[in-house]
Amino acid sequence: GDLLTKGTKTRKAEAISEQMEFLGSSINSTTNWMVTNVGFSATTDKVDKAAAILADVILNPTFPQSEIDLYKSQLIDELNVDLKQPGTLGRFVAARYTFGEHPVQGTPETIKAITRKDLLAIYKANYYPNMSTLIFTGDITLAQAKLLAKKYFGLWKNPARKDVTETLLEAPAMPRTNENQTIKRFLVVDLPNSGQSSVTYSKLIRDEGKVECPDTNKCVSNGNYYVANVLNSLLGGGYSSRMNQEIRIKRGLSYGAGSSIAWRWSDANFITRCQTKTVSAAEVAELTVKEIDRLVNDTASGSELNPRKNVLNGDFGRTFETNSSISGQIADLLTFSLPYSELNSFMNNVEKVSPQQVKEFAANNLRGGDIIIVGDYNDFKADLAKRFPNQKIEVIKADDLDLNSDTLRKK
Known about the structure:
The protein is α+β, with helices and mostly antiparallel strands. Helices cover 45% and strands 16% of the residues. It has 15 helices and 10 strands.
């Protein structure tokens, strides 16, 4: 996705940037686990010319080898720096260790192995009308949008293959996890002389994701989506969340501690994050587990939960302040095949979440996760054994770590 704007059959990358700049516009492309977005913003009188460039980028990319080499070099340099940071390394390890995925940014080895042939194959397999949606937001009528779509995308054809159809993805049927113990595995990545450590709790949540599809063409939001978001806001979704209160505000062990949920089609990746002094890594791990247990064992009061709901609804409201953020909301609905009416019910669905639902969701889904600490093991080894005396600790030296291996270890 990031290389789509690097040249077309009629325009070089520099020309694309210069032409969009001349229009007072910009064009960008991004890719995540679920979707690729390519878009522009422009004043109303420049939309036609900007749309012509957008169509050229989408329909006629050339992926110049020189641009591929430059982009790969830049990305590998960034990764080599980032992977020396405990926080980034902790997230990358969790992607492989807990979620069974590769890091979405790739690794230096996987980026190096990508060829122009690979990019062309991905483009050919995925970029066609049946897999795409054109979204206009702003000072434009439906009639004007249709004219632009027909003018610049009207000749775009689907591949002449029987296997290319507009279908919904189906997640594998997996049982929910209801573990008796909070920690399933405990991994330490020993990074000598790191100075700081990252502490992560990661848990794959099965079948509690964003959508349910009673039939093949109609999907609805899973009610637990809202419960999960309220829970996340309570635990680590802001400055006044429980984790930040306990770790930063009360004890000064970090500049910030929080949690997040990354949604897939059905499953969800739950993760907490905190970076701290290496000597306090074990204490932060203990506090993190205590906060997970408190969600499971205690029912939050309405007076604590209601402000967290207000934060969620306030953040949601701000996503309608710009045309690009509105487009993003619509794109999210399309990605998960949800109706547009979901936007009108978001706030009400958040308000409906009860303290008991939060507790039940935590009990059904948050236990049985992995604690991952990245830092200088010698600095917290004794404290870790003291705070977790019955816990088996797996240790991997950072020099022996291989993010491309299922075992995380170099052969």
